[in-house]
Prior knowledge:
InterPro entries: CAF17_C (IPR057460), GCVT_N (IPR006222), TrmE/GcvT-like (IPR027266), YgfZ/GCV_T_CS (IPR017703), YgfZ/GcvT (IPR045179). Residues 285-310 are annotated as: Disordered. By secondary structure, this protein is an alpha+beta fold. It has a domain at 8-163: Aminomethyltransferase beta-barrel domains (Alpha-Beta Plaits, 2-Layer Sandwich), CATH 3.30.70.1400. 13% of the residues lie in helices and 32% in strands. It is built from 5 helices and 16 strands. The protein has helices at residues 28-33, 83-92, 150-153, 165-175, 209-218; strands at residues 5-9, 18-24, 48-54, 60-68, 74-79, 100-103, 107-114, 133-137, 143-149, 161-162, 223-230, 240-244, 247-256, 259-265, 274-277, 280-284. The strands form 3 sheets. The chain has a 6-stranded antiparallel sheet. Strand 13 and strand 14 (259-265) form a beta hairpin. Residues 299-310 have low confidence and may be disordered.
Amino acid sequence: MNATIRHALLAKLPSQARTVVRVTGDDALRFLQGLLTADVGRLTPGTSTPAALLTVKGKIVSEVWVLAIDEQEPWLVLPAEIAEEVVAKLDGHIIMDDVELETLTEHACAIAWRDDEAALTVAELGALPEGVRAFDTGHPLPGVLLVGPTAGLAALAGLGEPADHERFTAARVSHARPAWGFELGPDRFPPEVGFVDAVSYDKGCYLGQEPLSRIHNRGQVNRVMVRVSLSARPEGLAPIALTFDEREVGQLTSPAAKQGLAIVRRAHAKPGAELRAGSITVTVQSAPLGDDPGRSDRNQTATVALGGRR
Length: 310
């Protein structure tokens, strides 16, 4: 039996509304390559990559999805709640560059995925509503990002089953994918929040690259993302404090039924470690997910690949 295909309009999910920004000009790719953590020069048309805009200290300012419209025109997808601020920061870095930023105010985003480990691909979707573009992606879930006019995205009724926040979160937990407003947020290093696959360590310099390089070569972050099981469904909204011996050691960031994602101190990121979320027992199921594995000659605890299937 084929796994169910699901889709969700991101604006209907908590903290997932997105703003789409078109980047044009002869220097567009070079400009983004010098600011964002991902290697955008490797993108081919119809694909996307997660990235981050960082402070000079290597802390996250914003999650960014980079979409390759063609070989010279990237689009950016930003968290809607901070998009105006992020566009202003990007604009402030345009000095002598031939770069223009245009917010596509009529555009929104959706995501489609399959309820199994196999990623849904653009080639499987067939005809899409007018104006809607599709991009193969691994983030925020392995599947397809759909970007286009809001009216077009609302006409995706034939694309499998609509999904709510609970379904979206359960899929993220299964694939160990962090999300903005839950694991991802300002003032965190990408390896702390399971977002190291948004970071290139070999493309050259970019804003905030030096601190991440030091972590990669010589250090470790103190907090990491793990998958956890829950003895009961927690009440209240995430994040929920996690404690060990009545001392806070992390946060449950994405609960879904009796599983979830959490950010915990590295000392507790070991399968079988038991923490508390009030009266609920929270058991760590994985080693660090999406953490920086470091150089091969650096002695550190093994890091689990995103999705936990390595």
